[in-house]
Amino acid sequence: MNNWIAVGIWIVMGAAIAFVMRMVIKRPEETPGHVPVLLVLGAFGAVIGGMLGVGIFEFDDPVAWSAGGMAGAATLAVLMSFIYRWGIRGLI
What we know:
This protein is mostly helical and about 90 residues long. The chain has one domain (about 1-90). The protein contains 3 helices and no strands. The protein has helices spanning about 1-25, 35-55, 65-85. Helix 1 packs across helix 2, helix 1 packs parallel to helix 3 and helix 2 runs antiparallel to helix 3. The radius of gyration is 14 Å and the shape is elongated.
């Protein structure tokens, strides 16, 4: 049960990181409708990053609620959000 709670925390953390990235990287020419896509992309990146972090760093005791899982979730959520915010420049 603790693993599912940690995965839920990854999802919320990824969406929050994506929202913060939206505030940090300003796009004055942005059209409306990008916020839901950015939040879903951040949450998706956090889940994938958390799984990779647990698989790589927590080899002996693979628990989602661990430093490796949280670090991996945060890292990939930031990376995915950053790529989306900078990569969308040519599409707007």
